[in-house]
Amino acid sequence: MDIDDMKDYIMNFTLNDCKPHGNQGYKRVLLQLFGYLGHGKSSFINTCKYVLEEGAYKMYSDVGSSHGGKTTKRISYPLTGNITLVDNRGCATMSDQETGEIYAQLGNLLPLNMEVAWQKGYQYIMTRIMDHEVVDDQSDFVVPIFIYSVKKGISQEEVPEVKTLLDNAKKMTGLVPIVVLTFKSQGKLTEVEATFRNMGID
Asked: What pTM did the predictor assign?
């Protein structure tokens, strides 16, 4: 399948055509982006939008500075009538509070297009879920996509927390997360790829 055929397939994709059982009640695919601050989630969104839409490159999602981390909301960006990208707020430290928020986002328990606040504890997250009366939307098929910058590199000390995050994302969604490596020409690509493969990512 060449690039034009792939683009045509994506633009015309419908869950109703999924074999062998059709849509199974799903109405939309949510491509849930998650990861660290400043690793290129917003740039990835802008690139996806550019590839699928005609015209000049636009800044749909605000790209951070060299220090990263401009996204403070859980923002949705429709790609097609059936596929939506979700830019979740990135973590700075992967603390329990931040990862708890990520799991709530991956579980589709928090509303789209609203502010995401860190470091308020699990009680705050649960209260916010209850206040919005958001229940896991069974009509959304959630695909976890972990964005990681090759430029940042990945240390052996960081590997356990990243593996735990990816393993939990798999448990929550039923899918092995897709890992998108950004800034591939600005770091040790082969080493970073090998590290993720050793974590069970294909």
From this structure: 0.80
